[in-house]
Every structure is written in C-alpha cells, then in structure tokens.
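chain below, 103 aa
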Amino acid sequence: MIVNSGNDYIAALKGNQPTLFQDVKTNFIPEFNCNQINKGHGRIEKRHVSICKNLDCIRPWPGLTTLIKVQSERQVFTHNVIEVTTQTRYYISHLLFDSPRIW
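prediction:
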C-alpha cells in the first residue's frame, strides 16, 4: 500500500517478521559503511551504519531495494563507572541509498 501510493519506507525488522529478519541477518553483506560518534550529557554513542543492496537470498518484500544494519555502542559515565551497552538493529527500505551518510 505504501509503495503503491508513491511513498517510500524505512522499517525496523524485529520479531514480528521472523523469517525476513533471519534472512537479512544471515545474508547481510555490507557494501557501504559509515561511522558516527556523538558525545554529550555524560555519554558517548558510536554508530556503525552499513548498507546492502544485494537481495539475492532475501525473501521478496514489496518495493524492497535496500537493507540497513546499525551497530551501536553506548558508554555512560556515572559515579566513576563506565557502563557499556551494544545493540545491532536491521532495517528494510524502499529507498535507494548510495551512502549511509544520511544517518
């Protein structure tokens, strides 16, 4: 419906689409990469964004052209202790990205 109306999408992949999520996670091969570091409010956030346009082993999805992987690390400084958390998120998109610099 989104694609048919002429709109674009970026959607997070989670457990609600388990087979598509597993396809993307297993077959993701980065083609473009970008790093970003943000500092402030007692924390440092690092993000590594990768884009993949190879959909050979990915189940069909309406309008799908791009896979996105965001690996993030957050360091929070409190009371002389550094707490580090990491997270990897995957997204699907109808947009054609040439570079992850838009993030």
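The CA atoms of residues 51 and 68 lie 5 Å apart. DSSP finds one helix and five strands in the chain.
thats it, cya
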